Amino acid sequence: MTTQSPSDFPNRSTSTVTGPVHADETPDADATPAAGPPPVTDQEAKGLSQGQIVRRKFFDNTAAIISLVVFAIIFLLAFTSVGFAGIPGWWKYNHTEFLPLLGGGAPTITSPFSWGDHPFGQDSIGRDYFAMTMRGTQNSIIIMFIIGLLAGLVGVVIGACSGYFRGWPEAVLMRFTDIVIIIPVVLAAATLGQAVNRYVGSGAQIWLLGLFLGLVLWTGLARLVRGEFLTLREREFVDAAKIAGASNRRIIFKHILPNAVGVIIVNTTLLMSSAILLETALSYIGFGVKAPDVSLGLIISQNQEAFQTRPWLFWFPGLFIVLICLCINFIGDGLRDAFDPRQKKFNAGRAKDAEKPAAA
């Protein structure tokens, strides 16, 4: 019998491991590592819940945290300074009180710790501009939240039902959406504003205006949610839920909706920031909030003639409009990144730390 050497079999390994590899046995550098499961993430390794993961990802977003702090300061300043719902505030003046003009109505604030009697100045008839701006910020924030909650709820429900059920429910809901889209929002809001001012007191203006705008501004969100549901309803986890006997309501709200939360949050926050701009525009042209109540748009409209001689009458309400819109948009981006499992934030520091063991 002819003895064959291992060199006669070039494609066969020259050694066979029959036992465990000890620590002192170094594998060949050219050997290809065996395929294995993907590495476990830090969150999975630590056994964090979904809420803890969302909270950690949100707090990792610097812009969202700064915006949240700024918006919280604006919110507390507006609702505690001049009071709300019959609860008195800590500021000594209100937005309807007429006072003697001091220093031509110029702002008396010199530093964050030295405000003076009228930190934002006074208007041409002596009203405290800080109290007016805070009252206007209150109304704008209330309208923003009413529109965001109502339009978000209606848009999500209609978009989810039309995207999941298809057939005649989709046809009916989308044709209804098309009808609402063609409604001229500014003209309809102006007509409603005139009717409200004639038959309803000033205290109900902001609530009715927010309700109306919320009932007509949900169409864009509904279409986006429908498109997201059309994609997600074909995924494997939806088929598994159907096989398991889950109801349609449970599949929509427990399985598909959490995967579409990124689109919903971003577009709802954009809707809320645009709602402030729409309310400001309506009040500026005289069809939104009206005297004796105030809003940021109405304050700018009432003092537009004094812009050249007293520009601070435009600075402060304009600054609060810009800050609120920016804060809401950045907070929405942070929530989208936190809730959406498909969003992965690249961290250069962690990438370098991961490369060091590989290089060693």
Notable characteristics:
single chain; 360 residues; mainly alpha; MetI-like fold; 14 helices
Question: Outline of this structure?
Answer:
The chain is mostly helical. The protein is 60% helix and 0% strand.
Write structural notes for this entry.
By secondary structure, the protein is mainly alpha-helical. The protein has a domain at 48-79 and 140-344: MetI-like (MetI-like fold, Orthogonal Bundle), CATH 1.10.3720.10. 60% of the residues lie in helices and 0% in strands. The protein has 14 helices and no strands. The radius of gyration is 30 Å and the shape is globular. The model is unreliable at 1-40 (pLDDT under 50).
Please specify the SSE layout and strand pairing:
Elements: H1 42-46, H2 50-59, H3 62-81, H4 129-165, H5 167-181, H6 185-199, H7 205-216, H8 219-232, H9 236-243, H10 248-256, H11 261-284, H12 296-302, H13 312-339, H14 348-359
Helix pairs in contact: 2-13, 3-4, 3-13, 4-5, 4-7, 4-8, 4-11, 4-12, 4-13, 5-8, 6-7, 8-11, 9-10, 11-12, 11-13, 12-13
Keywords: Cell inner membrane, Cell membrane, Membrane, Peptide transport, Protein transport, Transmembrane, Transmembrane helix, Transport
Membrane topology: Multi-pass membrane protein
Organism: Arthrobacter burdickii
- What is the helix tally? 14
Q: Quickly name the level 1 CATH class of the domain at 48-79 and 140-344.
A: Mainly Alpha
Query: H/E order of the elements?
Result: HHHHHHHHHHHHHH
CATH architectural name of the domain at 48-79 and 140-344: Orthogonal Bundle
Organism: Arthrobacter burdickii
Domain ABC transmembrane type-1: 137-332
Main location: membrane
InterPro entries: BP-dependent_transpt_permease, MetI-like, MetI-like_sf, OppC_N
